[in-house]
Design brief:
2 domains; single chain; Alpha-Beta Plaits; about 30% strand; alpha+beta; 5 helices; globular
Length: about 240
C-alpha cells in the first residue's frame, strides 16, 4: 500500500528535509514516528528538499506500508509522537505508480520580508531587512523579468553530485504583495534549482534597495553564470507552500 502525505513544519530547529546522520532532519523524525506506529522500518520519499531553517506548509512525501485502519487514525497516532513543529495535514492511499518527486509537475513557494525589526512571533518566518526606503515598483519589474522558461543557472547554486542536471525551468508566477512593512513574494514553477527561490528573493530585494537594476536582473539571467551580485536571502523567510501533481 502506497500512501501520499502532505505535511507542514517549522524548519527553524531542523537540519532541513533530507535525512541526516544528526537525526535532526524532518525526514528522520517522520520516519522514526512512522516506524513506531506501523511497527516496521519505514522509508519516506519527499517531493524535494528544503534547507535547514526553511519551512513548509505543503510538503509532500510518500511511503509504502500496510495500514488497515482509516487514514485519520494514522494521523492521530503520528501526532501523538511527532513534535508540534511537524504536523500531518492529509494522508490518502494512492496507486503504486505515484511518486512524490517524479510525479510532481510544479511547486509554489512564498518568501516573506519584513522591513525593520519583526515582532518575536513573526521573526522566525521572515527576513527582517533594514528599515530603509525601497522602490517597490522596481522590485515588481525585476520579478517580471524572471517569469518564463529560461536557463536559471545564474540564480541556482552548486549542490555537488546532487545538483539538478537541467537548469531550464518554467517560472509561470513571480509576484509581490506589500502590506505596510510586510512583503510577500509568491512564485510557482515547473521546478527550482538549489537555492533558486532564495536567490530570487535576494536579487529582487537588492533592486528595491537600488543596488541592482531590473536590467541587471535580465543580464545576469542571460549570462547563465552565478555572480557575487546575487545575494542568497536568509532561509527563515522561505516556505514550500504546495506541490502540484
Amino acid at each position: 500500500m502506497r500512501w501520499k502525505c502532505i505535511c507542514a513544519y517549522d524548519g527553524t530547529e531542523f537540519d532541513g528535509w533530507q535525512r541526516q546522520l544528526s537525526g535532526r532532519a524532518i525526514q528522520n523524525v517522520l520516519e522514526l514516528a512512522l516506524s513506531k506506529v506501523l511497527d516496521v522500518h519505514v522509508l519516506t520519499h519527499g517531493s524535494g528538499r528544503t534547507d535547514a531553517g526553511v519551512h513548509a506548509r505543503g510538503q509532500c512525501f510518500h511511503f509504502d506500508a500496510e495500514w488497515i485502519h482509516p487514514p485519520s487514525k494514522l494521523v492521530r497516532a503520528l501526532h501523538s509522537i511527532l513534535p508540534k513543529s511537524i504536523r500531518i495535514n492529509h494522508i490518502k492511499q494512492v496507486s503504486n505508480d505515484f511518486h512524490a518527486r517524479h510525479s510532481a509537475i510544479g511547486k509554489r513557494y512564498t518568501y516573506k520580508y519584513y522591513l525593520g525589526r519583526a515582532n518575536p512571533i513573526e521573526e522566525r518566518y521572515v527576513w527582517a531587512c533594514r528599515d530603509m526606503p525601497i522602490n517597490f515598483t522596481s522590485m515588481q519589474e525585476a520579478a517580471s523579468r524572471l517569469v518564463g522558461t529560461h536557463n536559471f543557472s545564474a540564480y541556482g547554486a552548486s549542490h555537488g553530485k546532487n545538483s539538478d542536471p537541467n537548469p531550464v525551468k518554467n517560472i509561470y508566477r513571480l509576484d509581490l504583495l506589500k502590506t505596510g512593512k510586510k512583503i510577500v513574494l509568491t512564485t510557482e514553477g515547473s521546478g527550482y534549482l538549489y537555492r533558486m527561490v532564495r536567490s530570487f528573493a535576494g536579487a529582487i530585494y537588492s533592486v528595491g534597495r537600488g543596488q541592482l537594476t531590473p536590467d541587471q536582473i535580465t543580464e545576469i539571467l542571460s549570462s547563465k553564470t552565478r555572480t557575487n551580485l546575487i545575494v542568497t536571502a536568509p532561509c527563515s523567510g522561505l516556505s514550500l507552500d504546495k506541490v502540484f501533481y
